[in-house]
């Protein structure tokens, strides 16, 4: 199964059997003796990507995002005129960085940190606005995001949900459909002021978005597993970490939106 995630989809290294290749030449007796005399290889001297590498790099990117978001949430007032530029600026810079990173053939950790900082501005500002309207909603959204992550990881780990080709195809179609819906809804909202999320079925649309983002985590877990299995160089842990952070930000925003709709009558 090839990756369909925009972050991993252009990389053959994250497909099944995609990276590791072997010399077909029959080794000589001297070659065999040389291999026998070498010390046993470990993850430290093979420079191959491991799960620990992915975890550490995910934590570093998420740490930058979290620090930036908390700074905006704690230091900026909802009525401060700088809030809107921070939110829209962070969203635009984050989008541009994500496109450059996803379509670049070179792994760019520096741009990933820029993305994390920009998304921190966006997430922190949006969280501040929502929390002003609905007190305590941010804490609920954070707990919901962590709960969804743990639940999907458990479902994937125990084989309840598998990233089969059919599952991936359906999920990608749903993802592109939801993206198209979001763009159309945004355009209609700007023109007429009508927002589909404010309709009686708004909570159902938002719940669909939460479920879609959560299931995309399964694809992320599978892509990471295949990358490790294929023996990727350690630097590809940055790509894996970036993909996870992108999905987690999406999941958090969707949960925040759903909670706001459910609490709309408070």
From TrEMBL:
<dbReference type="Pfam" id="PF12811">
    <property type="entry name" value="BaxI_1"/>
</dbReference>
<feature type="transmembrane region" description="Helical">
    <location>
        <begin position="236"/>
        <end position="253"/>
    </location>
</feature>
<feature type="transmembrane region" description="Helical">
    <location>
        <begin position="110"/>
        <end position="131"/>
    </location>
</feature>
<feature type="transmembrane region" description="Helical">
    <location>
        <begin position="82"/>
        <end position="103"/>
    </location>
</feature>
<keyword id="KW-0812">Transmembrane</keyword>
<feature type="transmembrane region" description="Helical">
    <location>
        <begin position="170"/>
        <end position="191"/>
    </location>
</feature>
<keyword id="KW-1133">Transmembrane helix</keyword>
<protein>
    <submittedName>
        <fullName>Bax inhibitor-1/YccA family protein</fullName>
    </submittedName>
</protein>
<dbReference type="InterPro" id="IPR010539">
    <property type="entry name" value="BaxI_1-like"/>
</dbReference>
<keyword id="KW-0472">Membrane</keyword>
<feature type="transmembrane region" description="Helical">
    <location>
        <begin position="137"/>
        <end position="158"/>
    </location>
</feature>
<feature type="transmembrane region" description="Helical">
    <location>
        <begin position="203"/>
        <end position="224"/>
    </location>
</feature>
<feature type="transmembrane region" description="Helical">
    <location>
        <begin position="54"/>
        <end position="76"/>
    </location>
</feature>
């Amino acid at each position: 199964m090839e990756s369909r995630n925009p972050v991993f989809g252009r990389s053959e290294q994250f497909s099944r059997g995609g990276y590791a290749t072997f010399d077909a030449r029959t080794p000589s007796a001297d070659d065999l003796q040389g291999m026998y005399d070498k010390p046993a290889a470990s993850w430290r001297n093979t420079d191959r990507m491991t799960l620990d590498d992915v975890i550490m790099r995910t934590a570093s990117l998420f740490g930058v995002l979290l620090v930036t978001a908390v700074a905006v949430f704690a230091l900026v007032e909802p009525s401060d005129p700088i809030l809107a530029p921070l939110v829209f600026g962070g969203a635009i810079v984050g989008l541009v960085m994500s496109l450059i990173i996803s379509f670049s053939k070179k792994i760019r950790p520096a741009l990933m940190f820029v993305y994390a900082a920009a998304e921190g501005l966006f997430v922190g500002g949006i969280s501040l606005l929502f929390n002003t309207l609905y007190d305590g909603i941010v804490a609920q959204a954070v707990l919901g995001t962590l709960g969804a992550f743990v639940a999907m990881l458990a479902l994937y780990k125990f084989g309840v949900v598998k990233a089969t080709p059919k599952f991936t195809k359906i999920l990608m179609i749903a993802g592109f459909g939801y993206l198209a819906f979001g763009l159309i809804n945004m355009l209609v909202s700007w023109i007429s002021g009508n927002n589909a999320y404010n309709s009686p079925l708004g909570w159902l649309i938002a719940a669909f978005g939460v479920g879609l983002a959560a299931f995309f985590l399964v694809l992320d877990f599978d892509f990471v597993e295949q990358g490790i299995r294929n023996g990727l160089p350690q630097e590809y842990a940055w790509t894996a970490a970036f993909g996870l952070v992108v999905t987690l930000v999406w999941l958090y925003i969707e949960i925040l939106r759903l909670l706001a709709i459910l609490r709309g009558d408070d």
